[in-house]
Fold this sequence. Notes:
alpha+beta, Alpha-Beta Plaits
Amino acid sequence: MRKALSIFKGFHDFTSFADKRMERNSSTKVLVESIELQEFNGLIAIRITGSHFLWKMVRRMIGMTVEAGRGKISAGELEQMLLADSDVPARHTAPPSGLFLEKVLYDGDKLPPIQPPIHLL
């Protein structure tokens, strides 16, 4: 999964990972600045920082990362989806539960390390 996530890092055209109902004049090019993955007792936490995100982009990135982790898609196939429009990511969109905006950063702000989840009774 780490290898699959690393493919997304950098400046890419995320057309394949965006919802097709986006505004026609919107740019699909996004700078993904960093991606972190940590495991806490079987729970996987992934933090993605970027210039901005497209509608459903992160859910589709995670869905495809899970498919790569299961061995159902190769890193090369994932890279091809960044180079040419594909409908495959839409078929593997991760559910919205568990996905949230952690923080909005401004110039000079730093993110603390990923913290383990809080277990509620």
